[in-house]
């Protein structure tokens, strides 16, 4: 059995998922393009999706259609960005530095001893919003931060429960859950708030649950379930099962196995 | 009036010609530059005109570069800000330990491939060298992994043997997580480390870039720090779900943390690069504009002087004829 590092596994999963999600996003974007044509003055909400699309297109080994769509996107983006010049100036300052930056004093002191002339570099602690401390009683709501590399899906959202797809199975998290580090496998994340349930299909990642009822879920790709195309999933599953049976080297077998796992997870997400 | 000014200029011509030194250093003696050796009368405006044309071209080019950098900055700034949530959960879980005592340090320096972006690459390299000095000691080794052409050019001069790996042309395709993940995998495969220190310029605003260092500890160091207490002390209180052993999970966690933090760092550095280029090109076009103003004044003075000289010649010739 071949050893694949965690990052390698994630990369293979993303490439597999992108092929499905790209066609979904392209369908969404076409709908959005029609909306844009009708509302030519609509401002900044559309940019993030086309940008991440072009990124996914690169990741999925661009074919000729994707290259032309990328060029179209790029020209549209440039036209839109020139129109947004005055808006951009207002956003010049970033707002992620907290009011009282915390500095690691031992580091600063040891720096000053060796290099007295230069300012020490900043460390991530300076830029971090301080987390709430552990309360004595169990809080009523769970605070969820759900982040992807391209966006923060949910940041500090108060919910009742989340169910995360850990490698050991679906794990429900309620406020007051014991602190846990969970590795995630491709599966469904469902966020329960009151009577609404939002379900996302995640590629793998990690979930941290802290003692102060804050849950951090970090995944690479996440798509709402209703946007997944059933036929593509079936096709992919058949293709990967076939690849698994014809695989010769360990690496190919591992890749095909991952493909089969991802597609069967997608399948059960759609049906279950 | 004109005679007086001409006499004044004549004195200015004479001094540099007598000194027989290159005149290039003295800006105000531009008039003297294009003055031909003694004996030739006509003052030519050609040289000044050539300079004006080239300075105007420089101004146009730098202004265009500023616009390009501004549009690229807009595009990448949204992505960088969206990716800021990615490293925060790791710091919330594992804390930040820049002063950790590690035997094998690897400094990952992120820089740009293209130049004309102000001082950000030099800042990154200075900080990397300082960290190298800080983490040096008996039985300790510090190595570099360099992303970007500019840092490589600077570090290869005196730390050639310490460079483990260098990667260039990062921004040929738009940055995305998969590419950075592959890169992180490559680095982790080829490099032994106890602590990874990523040095980059964090984008604070269009005019301010903060050099930042993020630390990522290898799983063994994490375990050691957790046992000894301190910031990572309550790591043991976390239950582990999935995987067979805690060590395996920590290994995966370290790799994942590295690729996430590297992704954010690369985006922030690209943002800072565009911002720095924008302000460098802006000040460059402003300087070119000022230079053009000064040259225009010089040009007008030269032109008027040559007209006055011609008039004098004509009038003195005419008066000589009259007798």
Automatic annotation (TrEMBL), chain A:
Span list, region Disordered: 35-55
Location in or out of the cell: Membrane
Parts of the chain that traverse the membrane: 6-22
Location, primary (coarse class): membrane
Domain ATP synthase F1 complex delta/epsilon subunit N-terminal per the UniProt entry, residue ranges: 142-214
Keywords for this protein: Ion transport, Membrane, Transmembrane, Transmembrane helix, Transport
SUPFAM superfamilies associated with the record: Epsilon subunit of F1F0-ATP synthase N-terminal domain
Gene3D superfamilies: ATP synthase delta/epsilon subunit, C-terminal domain, F0F1 ATP synthase delta/epsilon subunit, N-terminal
Sequence similarity: Belongs to the ATPase epsilon chain family.
Descriptive protein name: ATP synthase F1 complex delta/epsilon subunit N-terminal domain-containing protein
TrEMBL record, chain B:
Family annotation (SUPFAM superfamilies): ATP synthase (F1-ATPase), gamma subunit
Keyword Ion transport listed: yes
Superkingdom of origin: Eukaryota
Membrane topology: Peripheral membrane protein
UniProtKB keywords: ATP synthesis, CF(1), Hydrogen ion transport, Ion transport, Membrane, Transport
UniProt xrefs under Gene3D superfamilies: 3.40.1380.10, ATP synthase, gamma subunit, helix hairpin domain (1.10.287.80)
Keyword Ion transport found: yes
Location within or outside the cell: Membrane
Entries under PROSITE patterns matching the protein: ATPASE_GAMMA (PS00153)
UniProt main location, coarse: membrane
PANTHER family the record matches: ATP SYNTHASE GAMMA CHAIN, ATP SYNTHASE SUBUNIT GAMMA, MITOCHONDRIAL
Subunit organization: F-type ATPases have 2 components, CF(1) - the catalytic core - and CF(0) - the membrane proton channel. CF(1) and CF(0) have multiple subunits.
Family: Belongs to the ATPase gamma chain family.
Stated name of the protein: ATP synthase subunit gamma
